[in-house]
Design a protein that fits this description.
It is a single chain. The chain is built from 13 helices and 34 strands. It is α/β, with parallel strands linked by helices. The protein folds into 5 domains: 12-239, Zn-dependent exopeptidases (Aminopeptidase); 244-331, Immunoglobulin-like (Sandwich), CATH 2.60.40.1220; 337-416, Immunoglobulin-like, CATH 2.60.40; 425-493, Immunoglobulin-like; 504-684, Aminopeptidase, CATH 3.40.630. The strands form 8 sheets. Strands 2-1-3-6-4-5 form a 6-stranded mixed beta sheet, sandwiched between helices. Strands 30-29-31-34-32-33 form a 6-stranded mixed beta sheet, with helices on both faces. A hairpin with a 2-residue loop joins β26 (468-473) and β27.
């Protein structure tokens, strides 16, 4: 989980090896502290009976969390006291409560990441109805009087998790009004929420860095008020009778043209049919919903393609309780027709060159069959599997069966007569010099004229008498060579030993649109420079075999949640947010004590508790001239599930930075440096942990 774990004298977010001494005894709050009145239990708690609730007292063991400057009160201790008191109240109301810890130990002390994963696993294994992670916040500003209430729900889970967060926010805001100034309900991509497979929230009920609040939290009265608020919020959530799915299936009609999703519920009925929406895979789909006794049915308006699909379902019941869930299913209509094409169209029968037979397989509706459908060349032992309805066979010309060949898939078959005669070609196959695996997508040229593009299996042909060819392929060094055989194996040397091959790298040009970031005295915008450098870096990464993307590729406004969502949707291995001047409130860099650091012109920020983020920041800071790598709790660095950094090579608001970066050379130099730094990072460890 990415969050600020400590302030004051020790940066506990990076993993403290010792536990501070217990705080001094607190007799009671000073007269200036206004405690809430004792809670009057007016909430109907009956809805808690029979519910399974997992409580997660945050931190503990080697990770004490925030430490209050005013009285050394440790967050881990407050979290645990709240959770234990809450457990007693919930069990009294008939709930079954599972705890992730019951003392100052943690489920898995091996590492912070392992511990967070273990907490989510406890909730999943208990088949909890909800998961509530209990925390108390800290501000990075020295002497801060901030005392907000913040409730985070699982990122992009706007059904049950959002409902739970809403009821808890209302209850906490009502009962802790004297100790919570602002109330914020936010999506959270913290690891402990991300891995929990149940409706999940993370509570930051108040701030330990607020002196008065820290003293108040040492009293039973304030803890009791917080516990009652959480219990009330949970009771109000369950009073909505959240829907629970008992089963889902897909029925097929009209000879495979029509599919109908049938969803059944064990509780939470009736479903408000006007709220039902279904997205297929990564996009919307058309269809309509209808109520049935046990739930609803959704009929797809369009004929679905063959293959594996996921229907993402969203609905609410009559009381307003929401649910979101995936339904995986497969569409697999049988093969009906087969078409065959030969490449090259004609070849000498005695040649050792390979001939390509492209076999297109379609279902009775004329759509490509599902990926992985097996196709056989009956006259040989050869077989191949389809991808997007296409299977490829590579056969040496001298081994092609004479006369007619038969290609078959299931009950479908096609007869094809190869075209043989006096037409001479050489064939070649591209392979990686390091792995000997086929390399697709390479472009073969002769005298600057393109002869062909290699298939995914690395195959292409060149007509005779050409022998000297050039090959260029993303991720590999260009090659110039002679074709001396009928069939040639060409080894390509990976760029940077393949360090970047297949790596999913998201580059985030900060700001954009009406948010320019830092602006120079002559009006030059940092957002423009960031985008230019990001494009140059992406081009280098693509050429080196990486899967590189931008969060924006134009002068458009992109919110921080949208940037984080891009990283999650891509399954990014790393994210680099690139800025040429950030406000301190946005950069949120920390000093050695865990407090807000003074603004720096150039730095690379990483999340304090991310070991891989720190290693990435160090690698990039080194190639950028040794600028400092510093801890940061910037939003995009904090909320992404992958190692992320905030790179600021310079600040347009300071000095003569504009003159330096007005021309292309300086921008290109930054892109080249970042490119080299990424190679260094991946050469050290080719598989960074998320």
């Amino acid at each position: 989980m990415k969050r600020l774990f400590a302030v004051c004298a020790i940066l506990l977010a990076v993993g403290c090896k010792t536990t501070p001494p217990p705080p001094p005894p607190v007799e009671g709050p000073p007269a200036a502290i206004q405690l809430p009145a004792p809670a009057v239990d007016t909430t109907d708690m009956s809805s808690l009976a029979g519910r399974r609730i997992c409580l997660d007292p945050g931190h503990g063991g080697p990770w004490p969390g925030a430490v209050a400057p005013s009285n050394n009160l440790r967050e881990a201790d407050v979290n645990l006291k709240v959770a234990l008191t809450l457990r007693a109240m919930l069990e009294q109301a008939g709930a079954t409560v599972t705890m992730t810890r019951v003392d100052d130990t943690v489920p898995n002390p091996a590492s912070l990441g392992d511990d967070l994963a273990a907490r989510a696993a406890i909730a999943n294994n208990a088949k909890a109805d909800v998961f509530v992670s209990i925390h108390h916040n800290a501000d990075i500003e020295t002497g801060s009087d901030k005392n907000d209430l913040e409730v985070y729900y699982k990122w992009r889970e706007e059904g049950a998790s959002l409902d739970l967060a809403q009821t808890l926010t209302r209850a906490l805001a009502r009962e802790l009004d004297a100790t919570a100034g602002a109330r914020r309900l936010l999506p959270g991509n913290y690891k402990v929420l991300r891995l929990a497979a149940v409706p999940s929230v993370l509570l930051e009920s108040s701030y330990l860095t607020h002196a008065g609040n820290a003293v108040a939290l040492a009293t039973d009265q304030v803890v009791a008020a917080e516990v009652h608020a959480i219990a009330s919020g949970l009771a109000n959530y369950f009073a909505l009778d959240p829907p629970q799915v008992s089963g889902a299936s897909v029925a097929v009609f009209d000879e495979g043209r029509t599919h109908e999703l049938q969803v059944r519920f064990s509780r939470g009925l009736p479903i408000d049919i006007g709220t039902v929406a279904v997205a297929l895979d990564s996009g919307d789909t058309s269809g309509s919903a209808a109520s049935v006794e046990s739930g609803f049915i959704w009929t797809f308006s369009e004929t679905l393609p063959n293959g594996n699909h996921t229907a993402h379902v969203r609905a609410r019941n009559g009381k307003g309780a929401g649910i979101e869930f995936p339904v995986p299913f497969t569409v697999n209509r049988d093969a009906a027709t087969i078409d065959v094409a030969q490449v090259p169209e004609r070849i000498t029968s005695t040649s050792g060159a390979e001939v390509l037979f492209e076999v297109r397989v379609r279902d009775p509706l004329g759509l490509p069959v599902a990926d992985g459908t097996l196709v056989a060349l009956s006259e040989t032992s050869a077989s191949a599997k389809t991808l997007s309805g296409l299977a490829r066979f590579y056969v040496p010309a001298r081994e092609i069966p004479r006369g007619t060949c038969t290609f078959a898939s299931g009950s479908a078959s096609a007869r094809f007569t190869p075209s043989l005669g006096d037409s001479r070609f050489r064939s070649a196959r591209l392979v990686s010099a390091s792995s000997q695996q086929p390399v697709g997508g390479g472009i073969a040229t002769v005298g600057g004229v393109t002869q062909g593009v290699a298939t995914p299996e690395g195959w292409f042909v060149v007509p005779m008498p050409h022998q000297s060819i050039h090959v260029r392929c993303p991720g590999y060094e260009p090659a110039a060579l002679e074709l001396t055989q009928d069939h040639n194996i060409i080894s390509l040397t990976p760029v940077a030993a393949g360090a970047l091959h297949g790596k999913v790298i998201l580059i985030d040009p900060a700001y954009g649109g009406r948010e320019p970031g830092a602006v120079s005295g002559n009006g030059m915008r940092g957002s423009d420079c960031a985008l230019d450098v990001a494009r140059r870096l992406r081009a280098r990464l693509l050429a080196a075999g990486a899967n590189a993307h931008l969060t924006r590729d134009g002068d458009v406004e992109t919110s921080d949640p949208q940037r984080v969502t891009s990283a999650e949707d891509l399954g990014a291995d790393i994210m680099i947010s690139l800025s040429f001047g950030s406000k301190p409130a946005a950069a949120k860099t920390l000093d050695s004590t865990g407090h807000s650091a003074a603004a720096a012109a150039a730095f690379v920020g990483h999340y304090p508790s991310s070991a891989e983020g720190s290693r990435l920041a160090t690698a990039l800071a080194r190639v950028l001239g040794g600028i400092p790598a510093v801890p940061s709790v910037a939003y995009v660095v904090q909320q992404t599930g992958c190692p992320s950094v905030l790179v600021q090579p310079a600040d347009f608001a300071q000095g003569d930075t504009e003159a330096q970066y007005r021309g292309a050379p300086a921008r290109d130099a930054v892109a080249e440096a970042l490119y080299r730094g990424l190679i260094d990072f991946y050469k050290t460890d080719s598989a960074p942990a998320k």
